[in-house]
Amino acid sequence: MRKKKYPSDISVDQFEKVRPLLEQARRKTKPRTVALYEVFCAVLYLLRTGCQWRALPSDFPKWRTVHSYFSKWSEEHEGGSLLEQALKKSGWRGPRETGAKRTADAIDRGRAEPQEYGHGRF
Fold first, then answer.
1. 21-33 per-position pLDDT tens digit
2. Residue 98 C-alpha from the chain's centroid
3. Residue 120 above 70 pLDDT?
């Protein structure tokens, strides 16, 4: 468990309401090694601050782990992505200073192919 709290965090009670929704994306291959609450709070931090994946504070799970969950949760499903449904169900309002557009842009950036941002192999 993290020692530091961030303004973007939600309470454990709020998270328990969305846990079943987020667990739908789980692959049943091996036991989970990170706390799902910590991963979700890291995603909220990224959406709130707009920071780069690698700039995620070190007290969150590794950025690659968070990105992996973000990618799974952002896949389109009926009724929107699991992430969008979880954000709505948790009552999360998005970044205070720039509104919902920034959240949508961050979700779109996470879904983009690596080549679109110059990270793919040629």
1. 888 877 677 788 8
2. 18
3. no
b/e burial code for range 82-107 (CB count within 10 A of at least 16 → b)? bbbbbbeebebebbeeeeeebbeebb
Q: Is the pTM of this model over 0.85?
A: no
What gap in Å lies between CA 59 and CA 85, rounded to an integer?
A: 26
Residues constituting the chain: 122
Closest CA to 103 of 54, 62, 46: 46
**Cα 6 to Cα 117: distance, rounded to the nearest angstrom:** 29
Q: What is the DSSP string of 43-62?
A: HHHHHHH---GGGS-TTSSP
Burial of 16 (0-12, 13-18, 19+ CB in 10 A): exposed
- Determine phi and psi for 25, rounding to 5 degrees: -85, 0
Residue position matching structure tokens 């699991």: 82
What are 75's two structure tokens? 């896949």
Q: Which two tokens stand for residue 102?
A: 């920034």
